[in-house]
Structure formats: C-alpha cells, structure tokens
Amino acid sequence: MKILAYIALTLAVGAAGGALFDLARLPLAWMIGALVCVTAFAVAGAPMRMTQRIRQPMVAILGVMLGSAFSPDMAERLPGWWATISLLAVYVLLTTAILYRYFRHIFKCDPITAFCAGTPGGLNEMVLVSDELGGDSRFVALVHSSRILLTVLILPFAFVALGLYDRDNRPAAGMSIVDLPLHEWAILGACAVVGYFGAKAVRMPAAAVTGPMFVSAAIHLLGWSSASPPAELVAAAQVALGAMLGSRFAGVDPMLVLRTLFISMGATIIMLGLTVVFSITLVNIVDESVSALVLAFAPGGLAEMSLIALALGIEAAFVASHHILRIVMIVIIAPGIFRRRAGNKKTPG
To answer: Which of these, 46, 158, 225, 256, is most buried using a 10 Å CB contact count?
Structure first.
C-alpha cells in the first residue's frame, strides 16, 4: 500500500506540473511539466515512484498515436529518406566515438562504462550491457537519463527562443475521448495490444512503443483508420512518461545527480552540436525542414522526440522512423561489439 501511495503521489505531482505548463501554453506541456516537477521532488528527497505496469500501456498509447501520423499519401515518400538514414548511421558512429573519448579521457571512466554511456540512445540496453560486462551501470543509467531529460528540456525552449514555435497557435490536441467512434476505439485498441505482444514475441527494441507504432502505421497507411488516440489519453500518457523519467532520480544523492547532470550537459551539448551540423548539411539535400531534421537526429528518446514533433506541428512519422532506426543501430551494433571484445578479453579503445 505504501508503494501504491508513492506512485499515486508521483502521478499527482506530474499531473499538477503538466497542468501548470499547459496553462503557460508551453510545448509538450504535460510531459515536460511532469518531468520537471517530479525530478525536483525526487532530488529534494520526496518518495517519487513509478512502475512499468503503468508506463507500458501509456507508452503503447503513444506508439499508436505516432503510427497514426502515417497516411496513405506518405507511402511514396518513404524511399526518399535514404539520404537522411545513411547519414544517421554516420552520426551514431561519430557521436559514439567522440563521446567514448569524452568519458574515457576527461572523466576517467573505464572503457566499458565510457562506451555504454557514449551511445546517443539505448538507455535500457546500454545499462544491461554495462552491467553484464562489468561497467558502472548506475553511472550509465544516470548519464542516459540525464541526456534525455536535458534534451527534452533544451529543444522545445530553443524552438520557442528561435521563434519556431508559436504558443498562441499550438497544434490541435485531437479528438476528445467522448467523440471517438466505437469502431475506432476497437481498431486503435487492437493496434496497441497486437503491436505490443507481437513486438515482445520477436524481441523488438522498445517493444511498448515500436510494436503499436508499426501496427498503427500499417493500418493508417492502408487507409483503414484516420483516427488517433483521444487527447485525454495522450495527455495522461505524457504525464506517465514524464513522471517515469523524473522518478529515476529518486533516492540518488543530490550531489551525484548534480555531478552527473554536469557531465551529461557536456555530452548533450556535443550531441546537439553534431545534430545541428548534420541537419544543416542535409537541409540542402533533402526536402525536409531544419526543425524536422534536428528532431530526427536529436539524442532524445523515441517517444519524447516524436511528441515534441507533434507539439511543434512537425511531421512525427519522419522523426519517429529515424529514431527507431537509430535505436536498432545502437542495440544491434554496440552489444555485439562488447560481447566480442569481452569474449576476447579485450576492451574497446
């Protein structure tokens, strides 16, 4: 009962933060508001707790929503993304190489910890690899959590500061929960359930979001549905996601949090700098805006960056597709490198 009370308190703090940010008409208000408030309470020592049993269905809702951004007329555009996908692979390799040296030589991390902390994504996967091969998995978890937190906080407000987001002209929140037809409820619900369990069965990375997204994208590309999850459910999912991110800092020494944030700030600035360079390079090659390219390459989470795209009125399907591929690159390549090196009793670098 005590744990349930802590979870309820965390969700209440997150919802209050989301409501305050929504009143201020800020981008991605419900998630960022929940993230900021829960993080602040957690660092202050409040018992902030969350559970995967709440996060997974909420993230599945976001996956269905991201899939609904695909449409039949988009199918012919997908092959045109080859240039950005090719450079995305270069971005992942270059970023990991630079940040490996950043953590290894500046902050004297061991090789495994430096490599796992330096990938531009793969929070859960890199923590598991670090733990398996003897790295500092707690440091890796904090660095990746901080990376997502900082990216989610920096990018929306950077868009506001640059005049790329109009708070008085925010995209519509979507259909209300009472207006969604029953047959659309059935279709979207099936996308979430079939997508999640199908992705789990084939061990797809980030199954809770990628599975529902793929099934929803297929349904929407075929024109079988044009609906997306109701605004109230999307807001609740954002609160749950923000609360989960913030609750990761509960029970951690505040000084360790501040030190990790300082280290992660440097790494995040390097990643965002490379993101901008790649985006400016590509804007003259592909028919996409700098804003869309920045969000597609940015070192945030799949759900978080895609939600920012929706909040800013940017094509979420383009952004989400690139983040899925980035996760696949990291999850497939990095663990293989480490296991091979560990088998040879060698370490990277």
So the answer is: 225
